[in-house]
Amino acid sequence: MVKMPTEVKEALLKQKPIPIATATKDGTPNVIFIGLMKILDDETLLLADNFFLKTAANLSENPRISVLCYDTDTKKSYQIKGSAKVYKAGPQFDEMRKWVHGVNPKLPAKAAVVVKVEAVYDAMWGPSAGKLIV
Ligand SMILES: Cc1cc2nc3c(=O)[nH]c(=O)nc-3n(C[C@H](O)[C@H](O)[C@H](O)COP(=O)(O)O)c2cc1C
Description:
It contains three helices and seven strands, in the order αββββαββαβ. By secondary structure, it is α+β, with helices and mostly antiparallel strands. The protein has one domain (6-122): Pnp Oxidase, Chain A, CATH 2.30.110. The protein has a seven-stranded antiparallel sheet. Bound molecules: flavin mononucleotide. Residues 17, 30, 32-36, 48-55 line the site of flavin mononucleotide.
């Protein structure tokens, strides 16, 4: 696990929606937009599964996940890679439901997806493009 630098967290907080990529066990990729994403701490993100279909199927067989963001103010972009754990009961689920229903009580709030950050890469153009940050 790694700690997300402040500028990465700020980019995530500013961007909506955020593209999230998962893959099947055999590597077929799938990208979705997510609006409900929370930073739990420097190493952990919480995603709200309201409408995941292929994403939920992918996460049930392959926990690997990637998140992309771009900060239009700082002109910085980051790729985050991590591993996700899906909770359909318990404290993580309860926290997700409380948060999501505070935003909109009609949302299904099916599962909490907790992402442990394992690497952050520079995704801006230029000489550092694609290079590991942490
Ligand atoms: C702007 C926007 C925000 C979205 N936010 C969420 C979200 O927070 N949670 C969610 O479950 N789906 C969200 N969706 C829906 C997903 O992008 C996607 O439609 C859903 O996961 C089904 O696709 P899949 O079969 O690839 O999983 C959002 C879609 C858009 C366009």
